[in-house]
Amino acid sequence: MANSKFGVNISGYINKQFGLGAGVRANINSIKTTSIPFAINDFNIKISEHIKEDFKSAIEVSEKNPYNINLVQINIDRLHSVVQDVDNSYFKNKYNIAFWAWELENFPEESKIFFTLFNEIWVPSNFCTEAISKVSPVPVIKIMHAIDIEKPRFNRVDFGLPEEKFIFLTMFDYYSSMTRKNPLGSIDAYEKTFGINNKDVLLVIKSSLSKEFPKEKKELTDRIGDNRSIIIIEEILEENKLFSLINCCDCFVSLHRSEGFGLTMAEAMFLGKPVIGTAYSANIEFMTINNSFLVKYDLIDTGNNYLFVGGKSVWADPDISHAAELMKFVVENPEEAIKIAKKGQYFVKQNLNPKKIGEKIEARLNFINQEFCNNINVENSKAEEYLRFENQLLQQKIDKMKTLFGVQIKLKFKNLQNKIRGRNRKYFWE
User: Fold this and answer.
1) Tell me: the pLDDT tens digits for 39-65?
2) Contacts of 22 (CB under 8 A, 6+ apart)
3) With contact defined as beta carbons under 8 Å apart, do 11 and 39 qualify?
4) pTM
5) Mean pLDDT, rounded, of the chain
6) I need a labelling partner for 264 at 20 to 30 A (CA). Which of 145, 276, 308, 341 fits?
7) Which residues, 6+ apart, have CB-to-CB distance to 401 below 8 Å?
8) Which CATH class is domain 5-146+355-391?
9) What contacts 384, CB < 8 A, 6 or more positions away?
10) Distance from C-alpha of 287 to C-alpha of 278, rounded to nearest angstrom
11) CATH 3.40.50.2000 in the chain, residue ranges
12) Does an H or E element contain 389, and which?
């Protein structure tokens, strides 16, 4: 690394229209406010065909990673694919940083092998820091997402929304778990306050495309039933149109069970909207009783409802009655609700703007360059660690394969033959 140029190579879902894509673009916008040289790499990660490219705000990418620091903004569920598809020279002789968001208090055992590949981990919240640092052998650094929204260009008529009604908006992505995002909780609270087919209010549920999630979509539509004061907008919207939809609502609602950051809540606050949200996980780092409407909750076991955890963690069960009271309050006290929303808007614009986040990134990258990137021992050891990581990844696949019923039968038959014949033969993959 001693001869590499100082700067950062950024990789991730560069132009994808979903939360993790927005997260990497937020970091790019923050780095643009600094003097740090950067290159943008796209691993062309294979994800669902229903997650679209945002061509209108497309960011130019490079085939090379010329700088001495890599910032890899790929979550743990897709890192296997990245490591398999990307030449290992991308990581060698670099100071490698992973940017991860994690939504639960415990980090999954299956993902610990990825620490081998990175010198440090960046996360968007203290909530993520506490979850990951419990098991991380490398530093875990908080770099919050920057929020900066251009003036929304679309209004209610563009979405076919009524001008005269008070509109609540909740949003979720099927790929981020409908159970975790909990739109059903928002429906429960809404109907508890306003009943069925209320002519004065409207609940809009914005979702990603449901083609790969028919069971979850049916659960949602069955829950809505014949309530005509609840509508679903199932569409992939380009960035300004998505922010315009948030801007069209009178109140944003998120009765989530857990968040690694809570991007949509922060975006709604930036736009000056009253935000009702569960008072649990990362969003309480920018949502307070002074600038938003926090919902009481109980902690419950996740069960087998979330990626990797297998019932080994907890999350929030928001208090539906309390959420209903807050919904009623913002409708009946619009001036007070806006006053609180303005405090939220001020907080987000002051603390989560690209320049302020960029200063933190610049300070950290300068420190890394000065303290680590001229250390030849670090350079040599990372090449060895990459090989160790590949071996661990292969061993993990073998261990998983051994749990399959057919493979277990073969192993038992082989062991029986060895015992009878006094041999110690093994399959080549053991």
Assistant:
1) 998 876 544 343 444 544 456 777 889
2) 145, 239, 263
3) no
4) 0.84
5) 86
6) 308
7) 407, 429
8) alpha beta
9) none
10) 10
11) 156-352
12) helix 376-402
- Measure CA of the first residue to CA of the last residue in the chain; give whole Å: 36
CA distance 93 to 96: 9
pLDDT tens-digit series, residues 286-324: 999 999 999 999 999 998 777 666 557 899 999 999 999
Q: pLDDT: is 97 or 424 the higher one?
A: 97
Amino acid (1-letter code) at residue 428: F
Is a pLDDT exceeding 70 seen at residue 18?
no
Measured CA to CA, the distance from residue 278 to residue 367 in angstroms comes to 37
Q: Can you name the residues that pair with 168 across neighbouring β-strands? A: 203, 251
Strands 314-318 and 297-301, bridge-based pairing = antiparallel
Residue type, 351: N
How many whole angstroms separate alpha carbon 336 and alpha carbon 351?
23
156-352 architecture in CATH?
3-Layer(aba) Sandwich (3.40)
Collect contacts of 320-324 with beta carbons under 8 A, ≥24 apart. Answer: 320/185, 320/188, 320/189, 320/192, 320/255, 321/192, 322/295, 322/296, 323/185, 323/186, 323/189, 323/253, 323/255, 323/276, 323/295, 324/189, 324/190, 324/192, 324/193
CA-angle at 280, arms to 274 and 283, nearest 5°: 50
Q: Is the pLDDT of residue 353 over 80?
A: yes
- Helix or strand (DSSP H, E) at 345: helix 334-351
